[in-house]
Structure formats: structure tokens, C-alpha cells
Specification:
The protein has 30 helices and 30 strands. It is of the alpha/beta class. It has an 8-stranded mixed sheet, sandwiched between helices. Strands 14-15-13-16-18-17 form a 6-stranded antiparallel sheet. The chain has a 6-stranded mixed sheet with strand order 21-20-19-22-23-24, with helices on both faces. Bound molecules: adenosine-5'-diphosphate, aspartic acid and magnesium ion (MG).
């Protein structure tokens, strides 16, 4: 025999109701069909009751809607011959309900007893509908056999009585095909006979009680999702069905918010070892999940995650609590007397503080109760008043295979920490099958995503990118991302999701990902965005594994990094400003990123995509010491000095560098050595030196007045230098030498200057806008390390930024 329970959504419209008939009729033998109220009806009944109790006549329209909906469902799903009888029964019930509500409205009070009576109509009506839908089915009255008793004012199942009454009620069902329909949720008091219920979601419980009492082969719970999922599918889009889980695992998950099964429902069937199958009424092909006692270990240690979002933390503390026996029991007794359940407990090792996780709606009462219990201690100052932290959420990570599997807690805490979320309290029992953490509610979605991502989707890793600046570098980066996305997903299991694209005055944001092929139009049509708006959007999205990619040259944008780090967001910067600004700021940023466990990468600040900074970092980390650096790191200046020729004067090469996108828009930033100074400062700092730009000696090769005038005047005056350069060029050519603008660190001195190198020196052969860096270290002493290659241009810079992004994902 089978017990099959259909939830409210499975009964809410014609389509699933037809499936209900199909499912039941496909079963052999005795089938007990337990039904909830049609979706939303219980809420509507409570609403009507409360409205009526406040004397507000508008309850009538709620009542009318409830009634009409039931009648409409009858008309749409029942065969002609049974519609009238079913409707007549429903009319009788509706009339009874109407009279009750009218009484409540007149008296202006809603005793619990009456409320229970009113909400019972949900299941009483739906069971009439379902009985009529299933030819030959017999409607049973659960008030006759699901019995409750009152314990300390609380309604509780009278287990033994219900079990024997269920057996008696189904006694004369034979093994032939018989169908019984039972309204779930509702019950009656064993002594008074008054209508009671098993609590919200209680139809699952009714079904489980019946399955256990009758020794059913299985209990099927049909709902609106494909099975028991790794997380609530309404919160985590990437959650997927768990094939099987144990009763204990299901209990932990359901107790922590997995609404799919009402927690008390797990107990009766688990005791009798009856499996529960969770299936989808809307998708008959889905395999569903099974909850049973002996389930296979599965490939993952964690089976599922669940969460409660209306939690708060109460902290009871005081020096006098240390070593005193009985404090905890007094706290729990005080709360239990008022039916307040504690779902998480965490105690400090000194026993001077105990933190309790409870539902937020109980916060005020719980605080009052505990403060009353300890009023003398608080008055004497040996205990502090109770502290309440509101707007909290709790996440439970559950799996029996977690036991004896080291590293789960470490992984959990580190992924949460890396995303800038603090854990307010946590608990793990000795069974090690559950770790619960309490966090601020505003971080719940992010936490669930990141935990789900790391424990269940480790087949691929996801990074959420904000790209700021869509000029030559940013634009090229977006093009490269669009081209590589699929391949990275396929071959490296890395999902790169661009969730924001901004330029100086506009921005587009979409946590589900922006289509990179059409972003220009979207950006064009976007509303205005200032710096504060950009900051708020990036931080406000509060999305996990976020990386802010700065492809601008803006000091304002760089000023946001600090906030981003504080919020667990990594930064990849092509922008050189932050790393070359005042030393104290640079050091503070790096320290903050380290502390917050986020990445601050700016490889492209020197030599575009060349691995210069990462090489210096690797050398230092392995214990080497950088003694000297000589570097040609201005692609622009190299381009200029490589292109000067008899027929290409100096002024023309400067213009060519600008036109070909090598120089900064104002080429004087390059000609003055400013850009090289910044790069030198960055290299030196990464090599372990403490310096500022003002510590670098700049030997200019252009008179100072060229830098003091306007850009227009500069361009006008520039040809006046051509003759001098041509004369020098000839001399160099005759001596077989070439110009290079070199940044150097030697003996604690920093300088940038135009120098001459004879043929044979590695700096002599340096084509186009290539860069070269010579690193002399303790280990690379006799023969310095040389890094050379294409060191300027939008696409190689974008490729370097891309490489930094990928290194955050740490894929290989
Ligand atoms: P019913 O009306 O069928 O009793 P419920 O709304 O009580 O349905 O329970 C099903 C809902 O439980 C799903 O729609 C889903 O949003 C929620 N849920 C929460 N956690 C989980 C989970 N881990 N797996 C499946 N569903 C879950
Ligand atoms: N109809 C009741 C409720 O909405 C019971 C149930 O659905 O299981 O809580
Ligand atoms: Mg339910």
C-alpha cells in the first residue's frame, strides 16, 4: 500500500490536478491520497479570519474568492456527472465557513479554537474536490483519527491514539484497488473533539502518520519542484536534485528552512524505515529524490544547504557565568515555557557568553524572559542585559559524509571570508553532519551562492566581473572575454560572468550576466551614473566572487578600491594610479587586500601583458632579493626612438606614437618620463623598496618649457627640436649606438634617463614598442634575468588584464 500526498500547488489549477488523477490511477493496490488545501487557501482563510475579527467587512470579499475558486476548480476538472454533487458539498462547507466568519466579525475576537476551525476548511474543501476527481475514491475524515493533545498549552500529536485510530479507520480496506482521500493538516483534540491542526505545512505530517501506522511501502510527497534539491531552487538557480538522502540529513535541512518536507513528518516514517519519495506533480518525468535510512555515500561530503532568513542572535553574558552550573538550563527553561525554540547554540570556552539563534519574531519576548529570569544577577552587575542582534540569517551545510572528512569547515569559512562576509556565530555538533553559521541577512543570497558554488558546482568556478572603462583596453578586454568565454567554460571549468560594465558617466548592471555582444547599445541607453553610483552598484549587488576590473586611468575610480576590498571584492587594475600613488596609500591598500583575503593585481601597470610583476613577486616569495633593475618600459618612447630616421623627424615620431595609440593622449606624460617613473615606482615597490615618485631622479631630454605650455603650443613647438635630434641621431648611427629611455634602481638610487647603448648590449636590439627588464638578484647575479617582449598596445594590455582575472580563479 502507498500513501501519496499532494501539496497545495499540486492542487491549485487544472493542469496539475489532471496529473494528480494520472498519478493515483497508475498505482496498484490500496492508495491513501492525502491532500493539502489548494495553494494559497490556508493563507487566505487566516486573512479572512483576522480581517473579520477586526470588524472589517472586507473579509467577505476574501471569503467570496475562496469559495469561487473551489467551485471554479470543480467546473474545470471534474467530469459532468460529478460536478453537481461536488459543488453541492462545497456549498454546504462554504456556508458553514461563512457563518463562522460572520460570528467572528460580530464578536470581534478570534480565539485559537475558532481560527483552527476556520482554516480547516481549506483541506476539507480540497478533499471534496480530489475525491470527486478520482472515481471510486472514498473520502475519509481525518478529524476522526488524527488526534492531538494539549501539553503546557501547546497542541501536540497524540501519537499512540492516532496510530491506533488510523489502523481502525483503514481496517476494512482490502488489498484490491481502493483509493482513500484524506484531508491533511487538520486534526481534533483527543478529549474535547475540537478541531485543531498539525501546524503550517502539516499535511506532510498527516501523510507520514498514516504511512507509519499502516506500514505503507512508501510515502510519496508530490510538490512543485523536481525533488529535494541541493538548495532552495527559489534562492539558488543552479541547485539540482539530490538523488537520495538520509532521514538525518533531511531532518537537518528541513529544520533549517528546506520547506519541501515539514520536519515533524520525517519522524513517523523514519522510525518504521519507510522511504519518502519527493516528486514533481508538474513534471512527471522527473526522477525525484528518495529519503531513506540506508543511502549510498554519494560523491560529495555535503548533501545540501538550507537557510533561515528571519533569525536573530541573543547573547547572554557576564563574568559571573564562568563555571556556574545551571545557567544554560535556566535560559532554556525560560524560553521553553513560552514555546520559543532555539535553533543554534554557541558558547564561549570561558562559559561567560552564550549565543542563541532564535526566530526574529521571538526576539523581544525572549529578551524579556531571560532578563526576568536573571533580574537579580543583572541588577547586581554580575550579568549583562541580553544583547540582541537582529536581521540575521542562518545557513546550514549538511551531509553525513562530512563526518571524519577534514577541511569542510575550513573550506566553508574561507569561501565565506573571501567574499567579505563575517560569521556572527557558528555551531557544529559532534556528529559532524551539520555546520550552521549565522551571518547578516543582507549577505544571505551571496553566502548561499558562494557555498553552493564551492560545494556543489566545483566542476566549474564562477567569477563575477565588473568592467570599468570601455576605451581601447576595456573594449578589447570585453572582446577577448566574449571570444574566450565558451572555451574557458568547456576546457577550464571557469565561468566568467560580466555583471557590470561602466564608463565615465554610464553603467549597466545585471547579476545574471550581460550579453557581451550587445553591450554598447545597452550602455548607450543606460541612465547616468556618477562615481558614488558606481560604487553603490558594485557593492550593492553583493555578488559572490566579484572582481572589479579597472581599465580607466582615473584617480577617482582608483579611490574606490579601498571600499571594494572592504566588501570582499578583488581588483584587477590596468590603471596605474593606485599602485604608484603615495607609498602609505599603496601599502595600506595591499595590506587591506591581504587582510580581506581578496586579490589586488596590476600586472599590466608595467610592460602590458609581460609577466614582470608576477616574476618579481615569485622571486621574492622564494627568498630571493632584487638588487638592481634596469628597464626599458615605455613602449611609446621606444617606439619614438626606434622610428627616428633621416626622413622621419622626432616630432613626427611623437605624432605617430599618439596616432597609433601607443602614447597617452597627452604624449608629454611619456616624454617627461612621468609614465616611466610610475612604472619604476611600482616595480621597485613590488621588489621591496620603499619609495615615492619624488624619490626618482628624472633626467629630461626635452627642455622644461615644453612641459609648462599648453598642449597646442607643445605640438606647435615640437618641430623646433627636430634638428638637434637629427644631429644626435647621426652621431649615434656612426658610433653604432641606440637610444633607450631607461628606468633604473641601483644602490638605492632611482632614476629615469635617456641613455645610449652600443651594439651587443641586450638593450640595443629592442624592436618597435617592445619592453625589456633586466633583474639582477642575489640568485640571478652573474647573469641577470631578462624579460622582453611586446609591451604596449590595447590588445596585449587587455590580454594581461585577462590573465590577472584568470589567476584569481586559480585555474590551470
Ligand atoms: P507544497 O505546497 O507542495 O507542500 P511547499 O511550498 O511546502 O510545497 O514546499 C515546496 C517548496 O520548498 C519548493 O517550491 C521550494 O521553493 C522549497 N524548498 C526549500 N528548500 C528546498 C530544497 N532543498 N529542495 C526543494 N525544495 C525546497
Ligand atoms: N494547508 C496547510 C498550510 O498551508 C498545510 C499544508 O499545506 O501542508 O500550511
Ligand atoms: Mg509543504
Amino acid at each position: 500500500m502507498k500513501v501519496i500526498k499532494f501539496g497545495g500547488s499540486s492542487l491549485a489549477s487544472a493542469e496539475p490536478l489532471f496529473n494528480v488523477r494520472k498519478i493515483v490511477q497508475s498505482r496498484q493496490g490500496v492508495v491513501v491520497v492525502v491532500v493539502s488545501a489548494t495553494g494559497g487557501t490556508t493563507d487566505a482563510l487566516y486573512e479572512a479570519a483576522r480581517t473579520a475579527a477586526s470588524g472589517d467587512k472586507s473579509y467577505l470579499s476574501v471569503y467570496q474568492k475562496i469559495k469561487e475558486r473551489q467551485l471554479e476548480l470543480c467546473s474545470s476538472v471534474l467530469p459532468e456527472f460529478s460536478v453537481q454533487t461536488a459543488k453541492a458539498s462545497l456549498e454546504v462547507l462554504a456556508e458553514e465557513l461563512g457563518t463562522l466568519l460572520d460570528g467572528v466579525c460580530t464578536l470581534g475576537v478570534l480565539p485559537e479554537k475558532t481560527a483552527s476551525q476556520i482554516v480547516s476548511f481549506g483541506e476539507r474543501m480540497s478533499s471534496v474536490l480530489v475525491t470527486a476527481l478520482l472515481p471510486g475514491a472514498k473520502l475519509m475524515n481525518s478529524l476522526d483519527f488524527i488526534k492531538t493533545k494539549s501539553v503546557d498549552g501547546r497542541t501536540m500529536l497524540d501519537n499512540e491514539l492516532s496510530e491506533s485510530l488510523v489502523r481502525k479507520a483503514f481496517d476494512n480496506f482490502s488489498e484490491s484497488n481502493e483509493i482513500a482521500v484524506v484531508p491533511g493538516f487538520i486534526s481534533s483534540d483527543a478529549s474535547s473533539g475540537a478541531i485543531t491542526n498539525l501546524g503550517r505545512g502539516g499535511s506532510d505530517y498527516t501523510a507520514s502518520i498514516i504511512a507509519a501506522a499502516l506500514g505503507a511501502d512508501s510515502l510519496e510527497i508530490w510538490t512543485d519542484v523536481d525533488g529535494f534539491m541541493t538548495a532552495d531552487p527559489k534562492k539558488i538557480k543552479t541547485s539540482y536534485v539530490i538523488d537520495e538522502l538520509s532521514f538525518n540529513e533531511a531532518m537537518e535541512l528541513c529544520n533549517y528552512g528546506a520547506k519541501v518536507v515539514y520536519p515533524p513528518a520525517l519522524y513517523p516514517v523514519s522510525k518504521k524505515d519507510i522511504p519518502i519519495h519527493i516528486k514533481n506533480t508538474f513534471n512527471l518525468d522527473s526522477k525525484g529524490s528518495v529519503i531513506h535510512r540506508h543511502c549510498s555515500p554519494g560523491s560529495r561530503a555535503v548533501r545540501g544547504i538550507s537557510s533561515i532568513d528571519n533569525a536573530c542572535i541573543l547573547s547572554v553574558s557576564g563574568p559571573s557565568m564562568a563555571g556556574i552550573v545551571g545557567i544554560d538550563s535556566r535560559i532554556f527553561r525560560a524560553l521553553a515555557h513560552h514555546d520559543i525554540s532555539v535553533f543554534l547554540v554557541s558558547q564561549s570556552s570561558s562559559e561567560t557568553n552564550i549565543s542563541l539563534g532564535i526566530m526574529e519574531e521571538h526576539a523581544r519576548l525572549a529578551q524579556t524572559l531571560i532578563e526576568k529570569e536573571f533580574e537579580h544577577e543583572i541588577a547586581a552587575g554580575s550579568m549583562s542585559p541580553v544583547e540582541v542582534q537582529r536581521e540575521m540569517a542562518t545557513v546550514a551545510v549538511v551531509g553525513e559524509q562530512m563526518k571524519g572528512n577534514p577541511g569542510i569547515a575550513g573550506k566553508l569559512f574561507s569561501v565565506i571570508g573571501q567574499n567579505g562576509i563575517s560569521i556572527v556565530a557558528c555551531a557544529q555538533g559532534v556528529e559532524e553532519s551539520n555546520i550552521s553559521i549565522v551571518i547578516e541577512r543582507k549577505n544571505l543570497r551571496k553566502a548561499l551562492n558562494v557555498i553552493h558554488d564551492s560545494f556543489f558546482l566545483s566542476v566549474y568556478q564562477e567569477l563575477n566581473l565588473f568592467i570599468c572603462g570601455v576605451g581601447t583596453v576595456g573594449g578589447s578586454l570585453i572582446g577577448q572575454l566574449a571570444a574566450q568565454k565558451e572555451k574557458l567554460m568547456r576546457e577550464n571549468n571557469l565561468k566568467l560572468n560580466v555583471v557590470g560594465i561602466a564608463r565615465s558617466t554610464k553603467g549597466i548592471f545585471d547579476r545574471d550576466g550581460i550579453d557581451l555582444n550587445g553591450y554598447e547599445t545597452l550602455l548607450e541607453n543606460a541612465g547616468p551614473l556618477d562615481l558614488a553610483g558606481l560604487r553603490d552598484e558594485v557593492i550593492g549587488m553583493n555578488i559572490f566572487n566579484s572582481v572589479f576590473v579597472d581599465c580607466t586611468a582615473s584617480a577617482d575610480v582608483a579611490s574606490l578600491y579601498k571600499d571594494f576590498f572592504e566588501h570582499g571584492i578583488s581588483v584587477v587594475a590596468a590603471n596605474k594610479i593606485a599602485a604608484s600613488s603615495g607609498y602609505a596609500d599603496y601599502a595600506a591598500l595591499k595590506e587591506l587586500a591581504r587582510r580581506r583575503n581578496v586579490k589586488f593585481l596590476f600586472e599590466t601597470n608595467v610592460g602590458a601583458g609581460l609577466p614582470i610583476i608576477s616574476t618579481i613577486n615569485a622571486l621574492r616569495k622564494s627568498g630571493d632579493k632584487v638588487e638592481k633593475i634596469e628597464a626599458v618600459v615605455s613602449g611609446t618612447l621606444n617606439f619614438i626612438f626606434n622610428n627616428i630616421a633621416e626622413d622621419v623627424p622626432f616630432s613626427r615620431t611623437v605624432m605617430m606614437a599618439k596616432e597609433q595609440g601607443f602614447s597617452e593622449p597627452d604624449p608629454r606624460i611619456d616624454l617627461s618620463g612621468k609614465d616611466v617613473i610610475r612604472k619604476l615606482v611600482i616595480l621597485a615597490r613590488e621588489a621591496g623598496y620603499v619609495l615615492d615618485q619624488s624619490d626618482v631622479e628624472a633626467r629630461l631630454f626635452i627642455p622644461q618649457d615644453f612641459f609648462d605650455c599648453s598642449l597646442e603650443e607643445f605640438w606647435a613647438k615640437l618641430p623646433s627640436l627636430d634638428a638637434g635630434f637629427e644631429q644626435e641621431r647621426r652621431r649615434l648611427a656612426s658610433e653604432n649606438k641606440r637610444w633607450r629611455f631607461v628606468a633604473s634602481i641601483e644602490d638605492g638610487k632611482y632614476s629615469v634617463s635617456l641613455r645610449e647603448f652600443a651594439q651587443g648590449h641586450s638593450f640595443y636590439e629592442l624592436e618597435g614598442s617592445n619592453n625589456i627588464v633586466l633583474l639582477t638578484t642575489e640568485r640571478y647575479h652573474e647573469h641577470p634575468m631578462l624579460i622582453q617582449g611586446y609591451g604596449a598596445g590595447a590588445s596585449v594590455t587587455a590580454a594581461g588584464v585577462f590573465a590577472d582575472i584568470i589567476s584569481i580563479a586559480n585555474i590551470n
